[in-house]
Design a protein that fits this description.
The protein is α/β, with parallel strands linked by helices. The chain has two domains: 183 residues, Rossmann fold, CATH 3.40.50.2000; 159 residues, 3-Layer(aba) Sandwich (Rossmann fold). The strands form two sheets. A six-stranded parallel sheet has the order 2-1-3-4-5-6, with helices on both faces. It is globular.
Length: 360
C-alpha cells in the first residue's frame, strides 16, 4: 500500500504531532509506503486549532501538493487528521478536503482530537454541518483511540471504524524510585486550566497546609496563553520549593523526572484530549496515577494503581493524592499495562491492520 499522509509533525510538540511522526517513521517497517506532505500550521501550543489568515495559504499549498503527489505516486489512500472541535479548525478541514479529497481514492481519518461530532450536533450551524459532512463524511476508515470515542466519529458516518490505541517507544529498564519523606508529584504537558494544573496547584497547597513539606509538585511544559501563565504564577507565588516549573523538558530531562517521581497527576478535562501520551509514559515508568474519567482515559488504565477524581474539586484531588501516596508502589502493574497495550510496535501493527481494511 502507498499511503499519502497529509498532517503535521513537530514542532510544536504535542500528542497528535508526536503520533503523526511515529506513523510516518514507523509504517514503512510494517510494509506500508508513506508519502508525507507536511501541513505546517501551528508553530506553538497556543496556535493549535486557532484561526490565522496565513493558515489559509498553508492549508491550500499543502492540500494541492498532496493532490499532485497522490496522483504522481499512485497512492492508494489519503490519511488525514481532522481538526479539533473549533469553528476555524473546521473550515481548515473543509478547505483541505475540498482541494485534495479524491472520491476515487480511499480516505482514512485518524481522530486524535475527538469532540467534533458532539460539537456539530450542539453548536454548529446547519451550513457548517453540511460542510463538515461533505468534507469528512463517509470516510472509508475512521481510526479512534478507544471505544469511548466511537460515537463521536460515527456522527460523520464512516464506512468502517477501527480502534487503535496510541503507542510510544519503550523507555527501557530503569531503577524504580523509592518514595522518601517528600512525595514527588509530576505533571507533564500543557499548563492550562482545562488540563487541571490550576486545581492541582490548589490541591498541593491544601496538602502542605496540613502536612508541611510532605508533597512537592513539578510541572514540565508550557502554557497555552499568558492568562494561564499568570494564573499559575499567582497561585504559586510564595510557595517556595513546593511547586516547581521547569519549562519544556527534553527526553533526558523527562526521563529523569519520571524516574524520580512517585505519582503522576493529570486531572484533565481538556476539550481536545483523547488518550494522553503523558499517561502512557506514566504507565511505562510504573507510576501511580491520579486522573479523571475523561474521554478514553478510563479504558486505558489498569484496575489498580489509579485514582480517579472529579474535575474542578481541589479538595477531592488532594484526598486522592493522599490516598495514592499512602498506597504501596504498583510493583509493575502499570508497566505491564503499557507493555501489553501501548508499545510503539503494537501501535504500528494495529495501524497496519486498520489500514488493511481499506482494501476490503
Amino acid at each position: 500500500m502507498k499511503l499519502l499522509v497529509l498532517a503535521q509533525t513537530p514542532p510544536p510538540v504535542h500528542g497528535q504531532s508526536i503520533m503523526v511522526k511515529a506513523l510516518v517513521d514507523g509504517l514503512p517497517s510494517v510494509g506500508i509506503e508513506v508519502i508525507h506532505v507536511e501541513m505546517r500550521l501551528s508553530n506553538s501550543s497556543d496556535d493549535i486549532g486557532r484561526w490565522r489568515p496565513g493558515k489559509v495559504f498553508s492549508v491550500a499549498r499543502a492540500a494541492l501538493a498532496a493532490r499532485r503527489l497522490a496522483r504522481q505516486k499512485g497512492c492508494d489512500a489519503l490519511y488525514y487528521v481532522p481538526a479539533p472541535a473549533k469553528r476555524g479548525a473546521l473550515y481548515r478541514d473543509v478547505l483541505a478536503m475540498g482541494l485534495c479529497r479524491d472520491r476515487g481514492r480511499a480516505l482514512a481519518l485518524h481522530w486524535h482530537a475527538p469532540g467534533l461530532g458532539a460539537w456539530l450536533g450542539a453548536r454548529a450551524t446547519p451550513v457548517e454541518r453540511a460542510l463538515a459532512l461533505r468534507a469528512l463524511g463517509n470516510a472509508d476508515l475512521s481510526v479512534v483511540l478507544g471505544p469511548e470515542l466511537e460515537a463521536d466519529a460515527a456522527a460523520l458516518s464512516p464506512r468502517r471504524v477501527a480502534i487503535v490505541p496510541n503507542g510510544l517507544p519503550d523507555p527501557g529498564p530503569f531503577i524504580p524510585h523509592t518514595q522518601g519523606a517528600t512525595c514527588e508529584l509530576l505533571f507533564l504537558g500543557l499548563g492550562s486550566r482545562e488540563k487541571g494544573l490550576h486545581d492541582l496547584v490548589d490541591a498541593v497547597s491544601q496538602l502542605n497546609a496540613r502536612r508541611p513539606g510532605a508533597f512537592r509538585l513539578t510541572f514540565a511544559g508550557g502554557f497555552p496563553n499568558s492568562t494561564d501563565r499568570r494564573a499559575f504564577e499567582d497561585r504559586t507565588r510564595g510557595s517556595g520549593d513546593v511547586v516547581r516549573w521547569v519549562g519544556f523538558a527534553d527526553e533526558i530531562q523527562k526521563r529523569n523526572l519520571l524516574t524520580s517521581s512517585d505519582i503522576f497527576c493529570l486531572p484533565t478535562t481538556y476539550a481536545n484530549e483523547g488518550q494522553p501520551l503523558a499517561l502512557i509514559e506514566a504507565l511505562a515508568y510504573d507510576l501511580r496515577v491520579v486522573t479523571t474519567r475523561w474521554r478514553a482515559i478510563p479504558g486505558m488504565m489498569p484496575e489498580k494503581g489509579v485514582w480517579f477524581v472529579e474535575p474542578g474539586h481541589p479538595a477531592g484531588l488532594a484526598a486522592a493524592i493522599e490516598s495514592a501516596a499512602a498506597a504501596p508502589p504498583p510493583g509493575g502493574v502499570m508497566r505491564r499495562q503499557y507493555l501489553d497495550r501501548f508499545t510503539i510496535e503494537r501501535h504500528l501493527n494495529a495501524m497496519k491492520t486498520a489500514l488493511g481494511l481499506l482494501g476490503t
